[in-house]
Amino acid sequence: MTVNSAPQATAGPRQSVALDSCEALRLLGSVSLGRIVFTRRALPTIRPVNHVLDDGDVVIRTHEGSALTSHTRHAAGSGVVVAYEADAIDPVTHLGWSVVVTGYARLITDPREMARYRALLHPWVKQTMDYAVRIHPDLVTGIRLTAVDEPGVTSGGA
Question: Looking at residue 52, what is its pLDDT?
């Protein structure tokens, strides 16, 4: 086992401030990389993916043969339960935010919609991404990590 020997920044105490769902979605839409969490062989699986926020839904591109494509293709009408997380936390100051949306993922099958997402969302990996998945958030949570300005201020829940 290797230990990270890079010098660690010493940031002061932080507090976790809950975000309302509108602010959380706004922040989610301000970045293009996140992590999708879904079940594969009854175990949680996490994949980094790029996304676009479209009318409150998270859309990602997938490919033939991916576990997520297969899962959503064979799902019943409601889709597959997933979580999607994105954040922007400075590694030196330890300030920033984190957002998690939980909801149902469905494969996009409409050819016009798919063409639109091909134009809007360009995968970061060199692989044919012929599919797209839409995640409709049923639960949106988020936190902002802020500096504790006054002694004795306690952190909120995370």
Answer: 94
Q: In the numeric block, which tokens belong to residue 156?
A: 């909120």
Low-confidence spans in the chain with pLDDT less than 70: 1-11, 65, 71, 76, 150-158
E runs forming strands in 64-130 = 80-89, 96-107
Give the pLDDT confidence score for residue 152 in this predicted structure.
45
d(CA 103, CA 140): 9
The rounded distance, in Å, linking the Cα atoms of 153 and 55 is 37
Q: Tens digit of pLDDT for each residue in 68-92?
A: 777 677 776 778 899 999 999 999 9
Is residue 37 a contact partner of residue 84, using CB atoms and an 8 Å limit? yes
Beta-carbon-side half-sphere exposure of residue 72 (alpha carbons within 13 Å): 24
The secondary structure element, H or E, covering residue 58 is strand 57-62
Token pair for 79: 């889709």
CA–CA dist 101, 37 (Å, integer): 10
